Amino acid sequence: MRCRLLALSIALAGAAFALPAAAQWKWRGANGQIQYSDLPPPPGVAEKDILQRPTAATLRAAAPAAAPAASVASQPAASIDPELEAKRKKAEQEAAAKAKEEEQRIAAAKADNCNRAREQLRTLESGIRIARVNDKGEREVLDDKMRADEVKRARDVAGANCAK
Q: What does R_g of the chain's alpha carbons equal in angstroms?
């Protein structure tokens, strides 16, 4: 059992150390020779001469621990993987849709609170007798002070939730 665990640990460590080696650039140099490197080609190399680029995942894995990982936004537009760009755009659209849905939900809740507060305010200002159940479970009729407090509270709720 221990032998298998040790062999598995060694295999995983080897795979982890080999991952940065996969971050390879391949381009055709000025003299026509094919060049390989773990660094990007020099600025003078034309886009059509770049034959292979590392993926974003291997770029992050190959980045030194002390240096911050380069973000996709800071890379030149030509080196962005179209698949990653499509995923990023889809994620942005989903986030925007979720934010819009949340705004609509909040607006609907505010409209409902506004309608309830206005209805409560109309009821309180109508002068009809109102009773409620207190904490002890007893029925109590609102006196003038209690009614004034409830009117103030209903106005505050209406003011906070109703569009001006």
A: 33
Average pLDDT for consecutive 10-residue bins of the chain (164 residues)?
Answer: 75 65 78 88 87 69 47 51 88 95 94 92 90 92 92 92 79
Domain presence at residue 90: no
Tell me how far apart the terminal alpha carbons of the chain are, to the nearest angstrom: 73
| One domain, residues 59 and 7 | yes
| Pair of tokens at residue 129 | 């007798």
Q: How many domains does the chain have?
A: 2
Q: How many CA within 13 A on the CB side of residue 146?
A: 9
Tell me, yes or no, whether 59 and 6 share the same domain. yes
Dist. CA 76–CA 84, nearest whole Å: 14
Residue 13: which domain range? 2-63
Both tokens of 19, joined, read 């991952």
